[in-house]
């Protein structure tokens, strides 16, 4: 007994010395989760002049991006935003496999909160976070408490999601009269209900059977993609390449294959895996790159004074016994495309117009008045003030002194965020062209501006002025 105790103490001391300064991936993931959670909760509340960092406001048909407000007519940067999102996923997958799943995905964060924090650390329903395969029996009182806590958090998470579409300042006004906002309240209930079912009942089966990302990731992998990998050269090959047929079922059988095999067959990596796989079988669809197995193996092998058999690296790096290559053609290409889309997104967002103007012509092309001395064209101008302050607007014809404004004679005011429709009549008192065969369209440029801030709030729109056949002019003079 004394000898066994001394051996255990020696192992602990050796592990302590070997792992000095080592920080488990688990803690790094917790820090990442905390940052993401705080970011998601805080961002909807941060505004500058009542404009959010990011908001898709369905109520007001607006998008807020980088504290700039865009109306539906200005969503020309939306393709760049979508391209940036897709390229970001492709880049991350090519570079580091399913790092999104294990480190950034809300599903994973919620499962960690419920299983590791609430059920294990706070309530003690589970004995240890090192065994994800443990089947919980009894403890119904504690399980009800865990269910209640998570239900409250699910409602908060659902509300947080909605805040990116309905700003918090509107959200809390709407919930005072829930019957008047059935869609929002229904969405809140559906999302909260799904989160309760997903995290408590569906669990990691969502990652395995539901999430489409797991199905498309494999086509983005190459031999240099960083993954969670068991080193068969050191630990020994336990499975055939079909990942189902075992070559060894015990440590002794593994040593019988090759006495240099280092795997102790402790199965700590299996017990800790949240998706219930054996990483020793190789890369599998269910692996989410959480690296819990790497932490477990590091502790076990650290007691023996050896490095972990499970690491975050690439297959080529293991085969060639070198460090993984982060910079290669595919990642550089995705990085360049990602940078280009981000630059495009910033550039498009910087071209925001501080007022909108749509010009529609009247169905009647022109009118001939004053015995052919005057020709008029009618238009319908739709103005929109996209700023957070009131402005006074007017407009002018650019580059054509023969065409002038007949109506309206005066400028008009428009409140912040409001629209106004103005009937505009342009006229000419000159014979622009003497063409007896057809009507003639003259291109014109209309410049609209805010009188109180003309240098900044100015837009130009192209349109046409139609001048009639000259025989109609002559006929009107008789």
Salient structural properties:
5-stranded antiparallel sheet; 4-stranded antiparallel sheet; Immunoglobulin-like; alpha+beta
What global shape is seen?
elongated
Q: Which superfamily, in CATH terms, is the homologous superfamily of the domain at 355-476?
A: Immunoglobulins
Largest sheet: number of strands, sense, barrel closure: 5 strands, antiparallel
The end-to-end distance, rounded to whole angstroms, is: 127 Å
Please state the structural category.
alpha+beta
Please tell me the CATH architecture of the domain at 355-476 by its name: Sandwich
CATH topology-level name of the domain at 355-476 = Immunoglobulin-like
Mean pLDDT: 87
Q: What's the CATH first level of the domain at 355-476? A: Mainly Beta
Concise summary:
Helices cover about 40% and strands about 20% of the residues.
Structural account:
The protein has 478 residues and is α+β, with helices and mostly antiparallel strands. The longest helix has 23 residues, at 140-162. The strands form five sheets. Strands 8, 9, 10, 12 and 14 form a five-stranded antiparallel sheet that branches. Helix 1 (2-18) packs across helix 14. The protein contains 17 helices and 16 strands. Helices cover 42% and strands 19% of the residues. It has a domain at 355-476: Immunoglobulin-like.
Can you lay out the helices and strands and say which pair or pack?
Blueprint: H1 2-18, H2 25-42, E1 47-48, E2 51-52, E3 54-57, E4 62-65, E5 68-71, H3 78-96, H4 99-104, H5 106-122, H6 140-162, H7 168-174, H8 182-202, H9 205-210, H10 213-216, E6 227-230, H11 232-235, H12 251-257, H13 268-272, H14 292-302, E7 310-313, H15 315-320, H16 329-350, E8 355-361, E9 367-369, E10 374-385, E11 391-398, E12 404-407, E13 412-414, E14 419-428, E15 440-450, E16 458-467, H17 470-476
Antiparallel strand pairs: 1-2, 3-4, 4-5, 6-7, 8-10, 9-10, 10-14, 11-13, 11-15, 12-14, 15-16
